[in-house]
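Why do we bother with holo predictions? Because pocket geometry can differ from the apo form. Keep that in mind while you read this record for thiamine diphosphate.
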Amino acid sequence: MPKTQDVAISTLTFDSFKDQLLVDYRLITLSRECSALGRKEVMTGKAKFGIFGDGKELPQLVLSRFFEKGDFRSGYYRDQTILMAHKLLQPQQLFAALYAHPDLKEEPMSGGRQMGAHFVTASLDENGEWLYLTQQYNHSSDISPTAGQIPRSIGLAQASKVYRALSIKNSEKFSNNGNEISWATIGNASTSEGLFFEAMNAAGVLQIPLVMSVWDDGYGISVDNEKQTTKGSISKALAGLKRTASEKGFEILRVNGWDYPALMEAYQKAATLAREQHIPVLVHVDELTQPLGHSTSGSHQRYKSKQRLEWEADHDCNLKMRSWILEKGIATEEELTNIETSCKAEAREAKTKAWKTYQSPILVKKEEILSLLKALLSQTNNDPSIQLLIGELAAFKEVTYRDLLHSARKALRFSRNHSSAARSAVSDWVSVLTSELNPKMHSHLYSESNYRLSNIPLVEPSYAAEEQLVDGRIIIRDNFKALFEKKDNVLLFGEDVGKIGDVNQGAEGLQEQFGETRVFDTGIREATIIGQGIGMALRGLRPIAEIQYVDYVLYCLHTLSDDLASYLYRTVGQQAVPLIIRTRGHRLEGIWHSGSPMGAMIHLLRGINLLVPRNMTQAAGFYNTLLEGDEPGIVVESLNGYRLKENKPTNLGEFRLEIGKIEVLKEGTDITLVSYGSTLRLVQEAAQELLKFDIDAEVIDIQSLLPFDVRKEIKKSIAKTNRVVIIDEDVPGGGTGYILQQLLDVQEIFPLLDSAPQTLSAQAHRPAYGSDGDYFSKPSLDDIIEKVYGVMHESNPTNYPTI
Ligand SMILES: Cc1ncc(C[n+]2csc(CCOP(=O)(O)OP(=O)(O)O)c2C)c(N)n1
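The structure, written out:
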C-alpha cells in the first residue's frame, strides 16, 4: 500500500500509475459485484439480511490509500471497500458473514454473530495478548445503531495525542509518536444524531487526529437531506466549526464522491493535517449514490423520484471512474471489460465457495441425525409423527443447525414413552451438538483471556497497627495517586475532574502532580466521555472515565450498552475494551441527584462489571483489581461515603479485592437481609435495632451486581435463616427484581424458604426533594425495620405481635 507521500500522481511513471489505477478499478468493481450478488443471496432466501457498500466504493478506495498501519477506523456498515483494499476482507468472507457462518476462521469479523458488513480486526491474540497495532491496519468493531461508532472515534484519535505528549513505557505496539489517525465514517443522515454533534464539538475542542468522512448519498433510508440537516448539507451546517487563521477548529472539505482526482487531493490534505498537526478534518463526501438501494429490506424505487434515480445512474462513482479512465486514455474499453468479467467470475466463485463451506458441516450433521432418527423410528413402531419429521428434514436442501436440532428435539418429545439405545443416541447427539455450538453463540460476554477478572491475584488491604481514620475521599484520592505513580498509562477524566479534582475531591491534586494529559476536565457530554474511554482503551491506554453522577449515566447509556457492553461478545474476544467508569450515586437530593437506576443498568449493561462498593476502601480495591484485568467495569461510589471515616490501608494502589464476592457484614440466624451501596448503612442500622425485638438478622453486602455472588454464598445464608428480604433504593422490581431472580433461578433458594421472599425498594416515582422527600421516596430505617419485622410476624405472630 503506498504511503501518503507516494501517492502524488506526478511522481509515478505512466505504467505504474496505470497499473495502480487498474488494480483500483478492479477493487471497486469486485466490491460492487460482491454487493450485487450478496443482495441476490438475500432475495433468494439464502441469507437473512444484506447491507452493502455499493455506491461508496471510490471514496473508500481513496481513503484506504492514506490509511497507514497503526491507524484505526471507527465506521459503519458501508465500509467494505476499505477493508477489501487492505486485504482484510476477502469476498468469500463477505459471503460467509451474510450466511452467518459460526466459525471465526471463515467469518473473521464475528463468527457469524454480527450481520454482514460489520467489520473488525483482531487486536489481541488467542491468549488476550496485544498484537502490534502499529504494524497493522486497525478497525474498531462496527455497530448498527446510527452514529453509535462516533464517540469511540474520539478516543481513538485522542490516544494519538496522549502518546505524542507522554513517553509511555512499552507503547511501541500502540503508537509511533502519536502519528495515527482515527478514520471515522458515517452516513449523511446519521449525522442528525446527537452523538455526532456532541463528538464533533469535542474533537474541535480537543484538536485530535480525527478524519470524519460523511458518505452523503442524500438519503437516510427514505428521508432526504432537506429533512435531516440544516441547509441540507452537513458541511454547510457545521461551517462554524471551521478553523480560521486565529482560531482552532476543524478543517472542512467538501468533495464529490465520484471525482477521483478531487478525492485524492482532499484525502491527501486531510491525512497530512490530521497526522502531522493533529487537526481534525471533516470530509463531506457528497453526491454519492445507492445503486442497490439502502439494504435488502426495501427498494429505493419506492421513495426516489425518476429524476433522482436517473441522476444516481449518471453519478454512480464506479461508472464515473470508468469514464474518467477511458477519457484520460489510461486504459481501453476492452481492458476494463476484461476486469469486469473477471470480477463477476471471482465474486460468483467466492459466493459458491462460501456457501459450500457454510453448508458442508451442517449437511454432515444432517446425515448423522437422519440415520439416528431412522433408527429411532424402527424402535417406535414407525411412529407416524417421527416418520413425517424425517421426511420433512430429508427434503431440506439448505439447512441450518436450528432445523436439525428442532427435528431431533421434537423427535425426543414424540418418543418420550420409549426407552431405547436409539433414543439415547438421539439425545446424546443433541447434547453434543448443543455443547459444540453453545460457545460459538454465547462465549465472551466477559473476558476469557488470562486477564479475566476472576484470574487476577487478590491482595488483602493491610493496616497500620494504630487505626488511621480518614475521610473516605482521601482513600480514593490516595489510591488513585498510587495507581498513577505505578502505571504510566492510566488516565482519569470527566466533568470537573481536572482542575478541582472532582466534585467530591477524590482526585484532588492529581492534575497538578500528573499533568493535564493524564488528569483532565471534559465538556458536559457523557456519551463522548465514554467514547474517549473506549477509544483510548482500544489503543492500549488505561482510561478511567468519570460520569459525575450515576443519574447521568442515562446520557451515555446507548454508548455503554450498544458499544462497550457488547464489544467483547461481538468481536469474540478479538478486541477488548478494559475501560473503567467511575461514577457516584444513590442517595443525595431530589429527582436528578439521588438516582439509583441499577435495574436499568443491570439489564442494559451485561458485558460490563457493575460494582456497588459500600465504602471507599472497597471501591479502591475494585479499581485496583479492574486495572489488572481486561474487562470493562463501572464503579458506583456511594455518595454519602466521601466524608465518612475509614481506616486507611497502608498498601494503597496494591490491594485488590475480589469481584463478584459478597460479604457477610453481620451474622444472624433469623432472616437474611441482602443489600448494597448507600442503603446498606441503613440496613446495618436496622439490623442492630431489630436485635431489640429479638430478631437476629444476617446482613449481606452484595458489592457487585454484575457478576452476582459467584460463589452462591447468599444461598448458604438462606439455608440457615430460611428467610430473605432484599433491600435497595431502585424502583420496585428494579435491582431487587434482578437479585430475586438470581436467588430463585441460579441459586435455587425456593426449597429453603419458610417465608415468601420479600423486596423493599424506593417508590416508582423519582425521589422528591428534601429530607421528607427522601423519607417518603426511599426506603427509610423505619421502613426496613417494619418490613423485616413483618416477615417475622407473619411466621410467628405470638413472638412478634403486630406493631
Ligand atoms: C439509532 C438508530 N436509529 C435508526 C436506525 C435504523 N436505520 C438504519 S440505517 C438508517 C439510515 C441511515 O442513513 P445514513 O446515515 O445516510 O447512512 P446510509 O445507510 O445511507 O449509508 C436508519 C434510519 C438505526 N440503525 N439506528
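The longest strand covers residues 182-187.
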